[in-house]
Amino acid sequence: MAHTTAHKSSILLTGLLCSTALTVFSATKGHAEDDGVLSLDPIIVKQRDADGDAADRATAVYVADAEIERAAMGDLKDLFAGIASVSVGGAIPVAQKIYVNGIDMLKLAVQVDGGSQNNRVFHHASANAFDPGLMKSVRVDPGVAPADAGPGALAGRVVMETIDAEDILTEGQAIGGKTRLSYGENGDTFGTSLTLAGQSNGFEILLYGKRMTGDDYTDGAGNTVGGTRSDLTAGLLKLAYETDAGHRFEFSGQQMQDTALRNRRANFGTASFNPLDTVYDTKRTVYSLRYEDVNGGGNWDPSATIGFSENEIGSIGTTETSVGVTRTYSATFQNRFHLSESDTITAGIDFQDQKSSASGDYWGTNRPSETSQTIGVFAQARLQPSDRLKVSAGLRYDWNAFTGQDFGQSGRPYEQDSSGLSGNLSIVYDVNDALSLRAGYSNVFGGIGIEDNFLFFRDWDYSALKPRRASNVVVGADWQSGNWTLGAEAFQTKIDDTRDVAGPTVTSYDFESRGYNLGATYGWDSGFARLTFTDSETRVNGAATSSYYVLDSGAPIGQVLALEVQQELPQWDLVVGGHIDAAFDYDQQLNEADATTQLEGYEVLNLFAEYRPAAYDNVTIRAEINNVFDRQYADRATYGGDYPGFATLKEPGRSVSLVANVSF
After folding, report:
1. CB–CB of 249/240 below 8 Å?
2. Cβ neighbours of residue 446 under 8 Å, at least 6 residues apart?
3. By its UniProt entry, which PANTHER family does this protein fall under (predicted)?
4. Helix (H) or strand (E) holding 611
5. 20 to 30 A from 555, CA-CA: which of 4, 241, 338, 549?
6. Are strands 468-481 and 484-502 parallel, antiparallel or unpaired?
7. Which of 551, 473, 461 is nearest to 509 (CA)?
C-alpha cells in the first residue's frame, strides 16, 4: 500500500485489525445502544426487515442507522463509508457512481419506496443520485437476488425507503419536526434541511426540504478542483392513511435538482480536453403509490406498488445544448402466503416500462429514443425446514419488448422481443450455535435494456443485439461468539451479452466480477468497531481490462478496506469515533498499451465527535475532520486512475465541518 510517514499510525492500526478480519459485514452483531445513541450495528436494521432472517438475506448489506444519520447533510460516499464492498467514486453528487463487488449499480435493480428507478443516464454523470437526508433505510442485496426483486436484477438489487412521519414523531406526538444546519470550511459549503410531520386519526403527512450551496473545494495538495461547487435542492412529500383494519395507502413524491458549472465531462477533472465550460442542469423525480394490509396473514397478505422515476440531464455548453431524459413506469402486485410462522411464499406479477430519449441543438428536430418493456411473473419461497436449516428459492419468467432508436432513418425502428426464465436458490445451515455456512446461486434473464441517450448521435445497426443473461454464485461462512462476529464470502458474477457499441454497430461482450469479502466486528459496553475488506477483479471476455473498456459494467476496484470505530463518553455527553478508508496498490496485469498496470493505493483518516447535552436531548452537534492528513487522491471507484497522467476528479483535502440537529 502506498503511504507516507504521516500515515504510519493509521496504517499500523489498520494492519493489526486486518489480521483478525474474517466476517461478512452484512450479518455483524455488536453493541446495540439503548440510551438514544444511534448504533453502527446493521443487525438492528436487519431485525426490522420482514425477511431479515430469510436465507436470501444472508449476504445482504444493511446500512446502519448511525451511517444514514451522519450522511444526512452529505452524499452517497458518506452513506456507504463503512462498507468496503460498496464503492462510490466521482466526488460530487452529479458524478458519483456506485459499484457493488466491483459491479456498476446499472446492473442491479434499484428501488425507492417500492418503485423501480432509472438505471441509465449520460455516462459522465450518475444514474443514481439520491439524497441520504430523506432515507429511512438502505439495503444492498449483492449478487443473488430473489425472484420478487423485479426485472433487471442481473447482479442483485438496492432497496431504499424514505422517512415516514413516525420516524420524526415521538409516541403520542401529533405534530413535530427536525431541522439540520451544516457548514463545511473546504468550499465554504452551507446546508440546511427542514422536516415537518403530523399524524391524526390514521392520516400522516411529511414534508422535507434541503438546500446545499458552496464553492469549489480544494484537494489534498491545495489545488482548487474546478466544477465541484454545491448547488443542490431536494424535497420530499409523503402522505399516508391507515384504516383501523390495517389497510395502509401511501403516496411518496421526491425531487432532487443540481445545477452548476461543471467540467465538460463531469466525472473527470479539469484538463485541456475537458474544460470547465458546461452547466449541468440535472433533475431526478420519483413518485410511488403503495398499498399494503399491515394485518395481513394466512393466505391473504397483499401489497401493490405503482412507481414513476425520471432522470433529466441538460448539458448547456458554449456552443450547443443537449437534453437527455430517462424515465421508468413500474407496477408490482403480489401476495404473501403464510404457510406457517416461519414459511412463506410470495407470488405476483410486475411490469416495467423504460424510455431513454434525447433532444437539443445537436439533434435539431429529431427526438431519438429507445424503449424497453418487461412483464414478469414470479414466486419466491422462504422456508425453514429445521431449526438449523433455512432455504429460499424462487422462479420468475419475463417477457421483454425492445424498440431501438431510428435517428436519421425514414423506415420503421428496430424491434426485438425476447423472454426467459430466471431462478435462484439460497441456503443457510447452522453447524452449531456459533458457526453457520451459506451459499447462493442465481441465473437471471435480463432482456435488453435502454442505452445512454447522449450516445444517440448515429444510426445504429442493431442486428447483433442479444438479450442479457447473468449468473451469480456466493459461498460464505459466519462465526459469532460473545462480542465477536467473524466471517468470509467468495463471489462471482457473470453477465453474458453485455451491450456495447463500436461506431454504428451495436456489439456485446461477456463481463465478469469475482473476488471475496472479509471483515470483523467487536462490540463492548460503550462502543463498537467494525472492519470490512473486499478484493475484486473485473474481466471482459475473460481478460483483465481498464476502466474505459469495462465502463458501465464495473470498475477495477482491487483491494479496499474500511474501518469504523465508535465510543461513548457519557460523562461528557459525547460520542467520538472515526473511520479509515484505504485502497491497496492494484496491479491489473493489462495488455492494453494506453493504460498503466497499477493503481496507486491510499489511506484516509476521518474523525468525528457528537455532543448531545443531557439537558437538551433534542439537540445534537456533530464536528468532523475528514481526510485528516490532507491526502491528495481520487477514490478507487473514480474513473481513469489507471491511465498515466489522466486528470481524475480528486476528492476533497482536509475538511472541517459542523452539523447541528434539532428535533421539536
Report:
1. yes
2. 151, 152, 154, 467, 468, 469, 470, 495
3. HEME_HEMOPEXIN UTILIZATION PROTEIN C (PTHR30069:SF41), TONB-DEPENDENT OUTER MEMBRANE RECEPTOR (PTHR30069)
4. strand 602-611
5. 4
6. antiparallel
7. 551
Three-state DSSP at 11 gives helix
State pLDDT tens for residues 266-307.
999 999 999 999 999 999 999 999 999 999 999 999 999 999
Q: Helix (H) and strand (E) counts for the chain?
A: 5, 33
Number of residues that this document lists for the chain: 664
In tens, the pLDDT along 88-137 reads 999 999 999 999 999 999 999 999 999 999 878 899 999 889 999 999 99
Instruction: Give the tens place of pLDDT for each residue, 137-161.
Output: 999 999 999 999 999 999 999 999 9
Enumerate the β-bridge partners of residue 193.
180, 210
- Chain centre to alpha carbon of residue 57: 17
Q: Which amino acid would we find at residue 357?
A: S
* Phi-psi sector, 361: left (phi>0), alpha (psi -120 to 50), beta: alpha
3-state secondary structure of 622: strand
Residue 469's nearest CA partner among 442, 451, 503, 488 is: 442
Do 361 and 338 form a contact (C-beta atoms < 8 A)?
Answer: no
Residue type (1 letter), 329: Y
d(CA 541, CA 584): 25
DSSP 442-498: EEEEEE-----GGGTTS--B-TT---EEEEEEEEEEEEEETTEEEEEEEEEEEEEEE
Give the mean pLDDT per block of 10 residues along the chain (664 residues): 38 33 34 56 81 95 92 94 94 95 96 92 91 96 97 96 96 96 97 98 97 98 97 98 97 96 95 94 96 94 97 84 94 97 97 94 84 98 97 98 74 89 98 97 96 87 94 97 95 97 90 96 92 96 92 95 95 95 90 80 97 94 97 96 93 98 96
Bridge partners for 609 per DSSP: 576, 623
**CA–CA dist 254, 10 (Å, integer):** 40
Residue 266 burial (CB count, 10 A): 26
- Buried b / exposed e across 470-503, counting CB within 10 Å, b at 16+? bbbbbbbbbbbeeebbbbbbebbbbbbbbbbeee
DSSP 3-state assignment of 414? coil
In sequence order, which residues have a C-beta less than 8 Å from that of residue 546 and are 6 or more positions away? 556, 588, 590, 592, 594, 595, 642, 643
Answer for the pair 96, 74: CB distance below 8 angstroms, yes or no.
no
- Residue 432: Cβ-neighbour burial (10 angstroms; 0-12, 13-18, 19+): exposed
- Alpha-helical (H) ranges within 606-645 are none
CA distances from 448 to 107, 326, 364, 664 (A): 12, 15, 28, 49
d(CA 79, CA 475): 26
Cell of 273: 480536453
The CA distance from 135 to 76, in Å, is 11
Q: pTM for the complete prediction?
A: 0.91
Bridging pattern class, strands 586-587 and 109-112 = unpaired
Hunting for cell 439537558 — which residue is that? 615
* Cα atoms in the 13 Å half-sphere on the side-chain side of 452: 19
Amino acid 20 reads: T
Cell 499500523 belongs to residue: 12
Q: Which residues of 80-91 are buried (b: 16+ CB within 10 A; e: fewer)?
A: bbbbbbbbbbbb
DSSP for residue 554: B
